[in-house]
Design brief:
This protein is of the alpha/beta class and 376 residues long. Helices cover 47% and strands 14% of the residues. It contains 16 helices and 9 strands. Strands 1, 2, 3, 4, 5, 6, 7, 8 and 9 form a 9-stranded parallel beta sheet that branches. Helix 2 packs antiparallel against helix 3. The chain starts with 6 loop residues before the first helix and ends with a helix. The structure holds N6-methyladenosine-5'-monophosphate. The site of N6-methyladenosine-5'-monophosphate has 18 residues, from helix 4 and strand 4.
């Protein structure tokens, strides 16, 4: 961490600077309190036995396998449309509270016949959640294709007004590695249909030990052919063949990238592919022996395009400010380094140039406001 700056001051800096979040899974970001409430309700209805799940929800460290067991539980708890909308609203509010000014929220559209849910109605529930946000000003795109202007402040501007947080939100649709080619294709078609409600790309995620690259490739190619950017969970486990196939595909971004070998990095370097870095997630799922050996260190030194992200704020009890702090504390970054790391992330977003332009202005304003601290 930069010299002359205490822990508390650095933590406050990480919280106060504007930030961009590009790798956050909706259902991985559920608040603990909401998760417990949902579990209790389902317990009372007799749908689950609450005491069986309570300790799973409250457990701190989890292996990658345990994380995916927990996701199965999340999917039981969060199956109806109202709950999806509620979670979306809360997750966006939580990111805005950390001064995230642009959030690319990813989620896997789900079919659930018993609940009358289709992939399309799932996505509509997510958008309804965005519409329900009142405590912060969220800018997203609604179903009729109009860019929503920021919600109006609740009170007229006055001296007692607290400045309202503003956040741009766009969506990525995830293909789960358990899905078939047809299901993956359905998600990409939905994304293309729903571009008008703020869907800006496709993600491939899910348990990395499940599924074959060849299953998802047709759908990912279809996305690419139709100009929809793709980000891949790449190298979350050591799987040389798949990592190479993924790099052959030339995705617009990759996430995690824990198990790339030197040759793979050479290719990634040449193509300057931005990497979504999830420090706490990688540490907690035991992708590395300790945080100081994380590939962030070398990539940062080599000035490779990087963006610090959270992955699953609920699952890993973290937030984006905390991830920035962790990077500073582990790799000796100072205030200025963090600010420009955050600023550079604007260039890797999937939203259009109009949004990029506004974000650049937000960072320029912040740069002027923070000039003393940035240049001291
Ligand atoms: C791979 C992950 C993940 O889509 O239901 N997901 N996939 N690696 C990770 N690192 C730990 N974290 C989350 O959000 C939850 C889903 O996101 C994916 C998994 O498929 C998980 O079921 P949604 O909103």
């Amino acid at each position: 961490m930069g010299e002359g700056c205490g822990f508390a001051e650095m933590k406050e800096w990480c919280r106060s600077i504007p930030k961009i979040e590009l790798h956050a899974h909706l259902n991985g970001c559920i608040r603990d309190s909401t998760l417990l409430e949902l579990a209790k309700e389902l317990g009372q209805k007799g749908d689950i036995i609450f005491s069986d799940v309570e300790h799973v929800i409250m457990k701190y460290g989890r292996s990658l396998t345990e994380c995916f067991q927990l996701f199965d539980l999340f999917h039981i708890l969060a199956t109806d449309h109202e709950t999806i909308s509620r979670i979306t609203k809360e997750v966006v509010e939580d990111f805005a509270a950390e001064n995230v000014v642009y959030l690319e929220l990813r989620t896997t559209p789900k079919n659930n016949i018993a609940k009358g849910m289709s992939k399309q109605s799932y996505l509509k529930a997510v958008v309804d959640g965005l519409k329900a946000i009142t405590s912060v000003d969220a800018s997203f795109i609604n179903f009729s294709g109009r860019a929503e202007s920021f919600c109006k402040p609740l009170h007229k501007s006055g001296t007692n007004d607290i400045k309202r947080k503003k956040i741009y939100v766009r969506l990525l649709l995830s293909i789960d590695r358990r899905e078939t080619t047809a299901a993956a294709m359905e998600t990409v078609s939905l994304a293309l249909e729903m571009k008008e409600c703020g869907v800006v790309g496709i993600d491939l995620s899910g348990n990395p030990v499940v599924g074959e690259w060849s299953t998802f490739l047709p759908a990912l190619m279809y996305a690419k052919e139709h100009g929809l950017p793709v980000t891949l969970h790449c190298g979350e486990i050591a799987n040389r063949k798949e990592i190479q196939e993924m790099l052959d595909f030339s995705p617009e971004r990759i996430g995690h990238a824990c198990f790339l070998e030197e040759d793979d990095w050479e290719r990634a370097r040449l193509s300057k592919i931005p990497v979504e870095i999830c420090l706490t997630s990688n540490l907690r799922t035991e992708r590395l022996s300790s945080i100081d050996v994380h590939h962030f260190g070398n990539l940062y030194k080599a000035q490779h395009p990087l963006v610090i992200c959270t992955d699953d704020t609920g699952l890993f009890s973290t937030n984006l400010s905390n991830e920035y702090y962790l990077a500073a504390a582990t790799f000796g970054l100072d205030k200025k380094d963090l600010f420009y790391l955050s600023t550079n992330a604007v260039e890797f977003i999937f939203a259009d140039d109009g949004v990029k332009k506004v974000l650049r202005e937000i960072f320029q304003d912040a740069e002027s406001r923070l000039a003393v601290e940035l240049h001291s």
